[in-house]
Amino acid sequence: MAEAVTQTDFPALTLLNRGKVRDVYATSSPQHLLFVATDRISAYDVIMRNGIPGKGKLLTQISIYWFSKLSDIIPNHFVTANIDEMPEEVRQYKDQLEGRAMLVKKAEVIPLEAIVRGYLTGSAWKEYKQSGTVHTDKQEPGLVEFQKFPEPILTPSTKAEQGAHDENISAYDAKTIVGHVVYQQIEAASLKLFKRASEIAEAANLILVDTKFEFGLIPGSPPTSLPEIILVDEVLTPDSSRYWDRADYERYLSTKEGEPQSFDKQYLRNWLTNAGFKKGLESGPEGKEGEGWTISQEAVEKTQEKYEDAVNRLIKGSA
């Protein structure tokens, strides 16, 4: 198995940010940034010590696919993934960047994560069990785990700084952060994007369970007009979304055994939980500073397999 790329280093480029997965670099073009998807992986907001080989290339491939499929709903920040079309200082690193880098429009990121949920699972199910709410918004009574919502719902969260945890918030709180008008635009776009993506996933025999969208602002055209909202970051990847196998979900509905087979980070989340992870042990199994969590080889291979399967099914199965 190839080695995972968990960190990048390009001396001729200025590193602006090292996120959970992506390293962001400045370019000589003031309107553009270089997004580089590493093979790092996180679960429960904790970055693992080791990565998933090839994961960054898979994320880049599927993001580009979705950007092209959804651009008529809302513009996005993607410019090119062809290294030869990027600024000169970037091209010298072609071998390292090929397949895992995108040149994107520089945008002012809106400090909100737009999480759209089509099914009741994960943290939403835990909250609903306790209070009958999802992100503090009341839901109809009697729902069960893995049940499909009557209609997809937008459940926003804050966009935390690196090392901090995103906080689930209500629609009311989200409007106080970004403003009523911007929130309405984000909500409308997110639900349209989710609907289109769900239809495409269905053609690949996958169910889009939930996903996270992020948005940014770029100068309007002409410059005197209001800023334009665009889709940024990654889109509908196995990192930012849950996907279930459709046939296996139907099996689950008839048997109520186990849980639906997923093609995303859920396998890693389950592995981490079984390895003893809980609140207070973010720094490692012993809770020691700088210790970290190392994924087993079996979990690395299984996660890699699930990501590859999801990407291949979406791109080839829905073509």
Describe the structure.
It is a single chain. The protein has 319 residues and is α+β, with helices and mostly antiparallel strands. The protein has a domain at 15-107: Phosphorylase Kinase, domain 1 (2-Layer Sandwich), CATH 3.30.200.20. The protein is built from 9 helices and 15 strands. The chain has helices spanning 55-70, 88-91, 94-97, 122-131, 171-178, 180-203, 246-255, 266-274, 297-317; strands spanning 15-18, 22-26, 32-37, 42-43, 46-47, 78-80, 101-105, 108-109, 112-119, 133-134, 137-138, 148-158, 206-218, 228-232, 241-245. The strands form 4 sheets. Strands 8, 9, 12, 13, 14 and 15 form a 6-stranded antiparallel sheet that branches. A hairpin with a 2-residue loop joins strand 4 (42-43) and strand 5 (46-47). Helix 1 (55-70) packs parallel to helix 9 and helix 5 crosses helix 6 (180-203). The radius of gyration is 20 Å and the shape is globular. It starts with 14 loop residues before the first strand and ends with a helix. The model has no long low-confidence stretch (mean pLDDT 94).
